[in-house]
Every structure is written in C-alpha cells, then in structure tokens.
Amino acid sequence: MNNTHTISTSPLSKTEQESINDITQKITQHSNELRKRYSLLGYQNVIGASVMTLSVTGMVIMGALYIKGIIPGWLCILVNALLTSLIHELEHDLIHRLYFRKQPLAHNLMMLLCWITRPGMPSPWLRRELHFHHHKESGTDTDVEAWITTSGSTWGAKRFLKLIDGFVFGIVNALFAPTWREKIRLTVKVLRLNAPMGLLYWGCWYIFLGYHLYTWASSLMGIAYQPSPTTSMLMNVINSAVVIIVAPNIIRQFCLFFISSNIHYYGDVTPRNPLQQTQVMNHWWLWPFQLFCFNFGSTHCIHHFVVRDPFYLRQMTAPFAHKVLAEHGVRFNDFGTYKRANRYNFTQPES
C-alpha cells in the first residue's frame, strides 16, 4: 500500500509538501526500525486475528458471566466497551486491508465479526468507501464520514444528540428537511445505513428505554404493572442484549465520536493537506474518553500521514511521531476547536 500522499492537484506550497514528505518518511523509517527490532511485528495477520479472537471471546465470557449472575451489569458494560474499542481499531485497519489482504475469506470473516460486535455502525464494507473518501477529501464539504461524527457542527443540543444517538438524529434531520421528497430521501438513507444490524441494535435500545420508563412511571403513579410471561421473556433477552452489546457500544461510540470529531478540522482546510486535517489531542483530562477509543486522539493524526501501520504500531511510534509532527507545526491540544466548530483557522464560524 502506498503510504505517501499524492497531492499534485492540491494547492500546496513547496514548504508544505516538503513537510508532509518529511513527516511521512521519518515516521515510516521509525516504524521500519521497530519492525526490525521486534520480530513479532512481522506477523501482522496473526496479531490481528489474535486480537479479534481475544476480544470476541472476552465479550462472550463477560456476557455469560453476567447472565449467570456472577458479575454485575456495570462491569460487563465497561469491559465490553473496552473490548469493542479494540475491535473498532481492527475494523479501521481492515478497511485499509492491513490484515489478510490476499486471503479474502479470513479478511471478510474479520469484517463480519467487527459488524456483529458493533452493530450500531454501518456495514464495514460500506464504511470502506466513505473512509477512503475521508482520506482523500478530509475536512471538505464532501467528507461524509467527518460529518457523521459531528465535525463541522456548532456545539449544542443538536450536536450532542448526534454524538449519543445517530439514529434518532438522522430521523429528526430527515423530518425537518424542507420538502417531502428530501424527507423521504434522507429517511431511506438512514434506514439503509443502519440495515439490518443497526435496526436491531437501536430497536433493542428503544424498547429497553421505553419499557423501563413505562414501568418507572407506573410505579410513581402507584400502578401495579404485571408483565405477561411473553413480555418478561422478551425483556430478559433485550436487557441482556443491552448490557452485553448495546450499552458498551453506546459508550464506545460516544467517546470515539467526541474525540474524532474534535481532532479533525472541517470546513476551511486546504484540500488534501494532512498538515491541516487533524491535530493531536493527548491532554490528561481526555483519558476517560481515550480509554474507550484506544487512545485515538493521540494516535490518529499519525495515520493521516502513514496509512500502512496497524493500530498497535501507531501506539508504539507515537512518542517519536509526536516530536516530528510538532516540529512541522501540526497542532496539539487545540481546544479552541470546540468554539470554532472544528474550523482550522482561528476565527469563529458564521452563524
């Protein structure tokens, strides 16, 4: 895979292009040195498959322990959220074909496991198209992936809703479209992006919330609610699904989108200029969010310069890479992005 940036059509200055080339070359050289130093890194397919096996097995074990009453629900939720953050990193690497590139059966099996364990996300095969475009046109108006994670939106109730519940946001956004044709088009788009896994995922979540809100309200009003045997059995299944897979992914997705949407610049970046596409966010107070997205804010900027390295190697190269990025003016912990709706320039976006 070509891990450099071909930017012949981009209005970059000679200095910017030289900086991009220098960053890419130095980080690539450093990761090559790590590969030589640690022979285990040469078994990339084995590492990816092992992380997937351990993560999925861990989720199944935690789910079984919860169902048997051996561990509390909160522990299952937190551990599985951590495990799904690993699986997200695997999916991101798989989208770039970093594992089993020449073995489609194994590659697609891993992709399927990523989707099953993170059903609230669109199909990884569909995401591949969006993600490749994100790399090509990061931060521009056509960068759908950045828009999905709320980049470019001003902070408020609308952005917060989009962070915690993309499905409801999509439906609400469709309902407020100016014409019926646009309402239908956007609704179909939301359903298509979420079919079929996401519809089951969000369906479980809304039934869970609705049922428990109803029983809570009934108890407040002094009404004795006695569910039927069928309802009890259905809710046992839904309650377990929420604890084992839905709630962990809601936590993981919120943390990932919060970090991702703020490390990416949007709206006024120079096209195809990785110097402006992302920043590094590694301030100490971000660690609760970083925990559930595998240190994404600290390492994702590296990926925009060197695509070929898997997620665990980015963690290893980060101390060196951060020095190189800083030398070339890539930003660190620019929290002003919250006020600027992710604009790169230090001006407030027009309302």
TrEMBL record:
> Which residue ranges does the record assign to the Fatty acid desaturase domain?
71-334
Q: Which UniProt keywords apply?
A: Membrane, Transmembrane, Transmembrane helix
- Report the transmembrane regions from the record: 45-65, 71-90, 160-180, 200-225, 237-265, 285-307
Please give the name of this protein: Fatty acid desaturase
Coiled-coil residues are none
| Pfam family of the protein (one) | FA_desaturase
Q: What is the lineage of its organism?
A: Bacteria, Pseudomonadati, Pseudomonadota, Gammaproteobacteria, Pseudomonadales
The answer to whether the entry has keyword Transmembrane is: yes
